[in-house]
Specification:
Blueprint (H helix, E strand, L loop, with lengths): L2 H19 L6 H8 L3 H8 L2 H26 L4 H17 L2 H10 L9 H18 L8 H18 L1 E2 L5 E2 L4 H19 L6
Antiparallel strand pairs: 1-2
Helix pairs in contact: 1-2, 1-3, 1-4, 1-6, 4-5, 4-7, 5-8, 5-9, 7-8, 8-9
InterPro entries: Homeodomain-like_sf, HTH-type_TetR-like_transc_reg, HTH_TetR, Tet_transcr_reg_TetR-rel_C_sf
Keywords: DNA-binding
Protein name: TetR/AcrR family transcriptional regulator
């Protein structure tokens, strides 16, 4: 195994475990065992657990930033463009559920001693998205809360889904439920931003 493939394996496994169990619930030993490596190999590539977590969060941020920049480069500053932005963000979270999960753990005070990630990663992305949204809406709209609400709902749906009439959890693995959530997200965000109803 090359050094790069070992590093990537550790990153992939750590991402999966941090997303499932949180930083506080994941040990370096658990990561090493799940990767089929020893702790010394993990330490060789990343040092300690904190440095590995920082690498996981940086990679997650770069992935999310690239997806947002791609969609923002092609949207129009109108209701249709904002719906396209919502759709792409939902699709991204469905395709990469580990990224919403990583952030949701942080919302619940996981890795509280690593406090700078929100300023480093979240704030610039929120400013970028809010700036694009502002171009499409009128004055008097609380753009930040509208964007945050869309993020909170999308992360919650992708992580936990909804409970159906039979008590079963439905969510990102169910195309019908995704379509239903997408339609709701359009209506909810459109109402918050004062956008015309798409009909």
């Amino acid at each position: 195994m090359t050094s790069d493939s070992g590093r990537e394996r550790v990153l992939d496994v750590a991402t999966r475990l941090f997303a499932a169990l949180g930083y506080d619930g994941t040990s370096t030993r658990l990561i090493a065992e799940a990767a089929g490596l020893n702790i010394a190999t993990v330490a060789y590539h990343f040092g300690g657990k904190r440095d590995l977590y920082l690498a996981v969060m940086e990679r997650a941020h770069q992935t999310e930033r690239a997806a947002l920049e791609s969609v923002l480069a092609g949207i129009t500053p109108d209701a249709s463009g904002l719906r396209a932005l919502l759709d792409r963000y939902l699709d991204f979270c469905v395709e990469r559920p580990e990224i919403p999960s990583l952030w949701m753990h942080r919302w619940l005070s996981d890795a509280a001693d690593v406090a700078h990630l929100e300023n480093l990663y979240v704030k610039p992305l929120m400013e970028m998205v809010a700036g694009a949204v502002r171009e499409a809406v009128g004055p008097g709209v609380d753009v930040e809360y509208a964007v945050w609400t869309a993020v909170w709902c999308t992360h919650g749906f992708c992580r936990g889904g909804v409970i159906d009439a039979d008590g079963r959890r439905r969510g990102r693995d169910d195309p019908k439920e995704i379509a239903r959530f997408r339609a709701y997200l359009h209506r909810m965000t459109g109402a918050a931003l004062g956008l015309p109803d798409p009909g």
